[in-house]
Amino acid sequence: MSNRRIVGTVVPGLFFWCLLLSGVGASSLNREAGAIYLEDVIPQPIMLKVLRPTTVYLDLGAQRNVGTLIPDREVQLLAMTDRAFRVKGQAQHDQVSGWVRPADIGGMTDEFKENLRKLYERQVLVEDLIANNQVALGMTIGEVVRSMGDPTKKSTTLDKEGRKDTFEFITYKNVAVGNGRLSVLPGGGLYEGFSYVKVEDTKVTIKFEDEMVTSIEETEGAAAGVAPAVRVVPRPIFLFGGHKHHHRPPGGKPGK
Q1: Most buried by CB count within 10 Å: which residue of 27, 36, 223, 244?
Q2: What are φ and ψ of residue 71, in 5° steps?
Q3: At what angle do helices 110-131 and 141-148 cross, to 10 degrees?
């Protein structure tokens, strides 16, 4: 458990809204600097509507025109900034993906964009924790397993108040213990033989309610020091009411 650290309390700051969000199929694209990809955040494609003939550019610098989107057609949102959307859809000559003006694309409400931003900010915090094998209040069971691996022990309770899970992550160390047998040294002295015994070194107990972390307890050997305070991340944001494969952001029909 020596590489697993529980770190100090952090109040998440807001990231600049100029960060991007992009999605399905985006892993094959060259990511723009500072980009946030929807495939990193949500599994469902977000479908919007083209309001007017729209020029599509290969990059945010608008240096290369790759086509013109057809009005009243649906496009899939791949990325967004405060000044551009990356979409994939049917152009006049072929299907294209690239950057367009948000004013030319309808169907994205301010509330939905705000929730996307919050979801991404949470994702940044969680991915940093996972990269450092750390755990925080508000993480999900899946995120904890990604960070810490499978637990040494676990238990689950289901009652009228919901589901409660307890995970224990235990590491062990070998300690030399005298075995009571005396041996004679070549010079005539005596020494006691020893053997190694595996004992518990550290234990992290994580409790979940409805599959989200509600408490973390870390106990360590005397030489390991005192564990710092616990970090907190926001609870997951659920953008969709169900688990549909395609989704139009709320706010009426696309284009409204």
Answers
A1: 36
A2: -60, 155
A3: 30
Q: Residue 96 in contact with residue 88, Cβ under 8 Å?
A: yes
CA distance 87 to 69: 10
> Which residue type, as a one-letter code, is found at position 98?
G
E strands, 58-161, are 65-69, 74-80, 85-90, 95-100, 105-106, 136-137, 153-159
- Calculate ∠ Cα 107-41-49, nearest 5°: 15
Average pLDDT over residues 48-70: 92
- Give every CB contact of residue 129 below 8 A, 6+ residues apart in sequence: 135, 136, 139, 143, 147, 231, 233
Q: Which two tokens stand for residue 26?
A: 């985006």
Residue range 138-154: average pLDDT? 93
Residue-wise DSSP of 177-204:
EEEEEEEE-TTS-EEEEEEEEEEEEEEE
| Residue type present at position 235 | R
Alpha helices in the chain (DSSP H): 110-131, 141-148
Looking up tokens 């009005």 gives 71
Element (H, E) at 214: strand 212-220
CB 57 within 8 Å of CB 99? yes
Give the pLDDT band (50/70/90) at residue 221.
low
Tokens for 255? 């284009």
Tell me the pLDDT tens digit for each residue of 97-130: 999 998 999 887 888 878 877 887 888 888 889 9
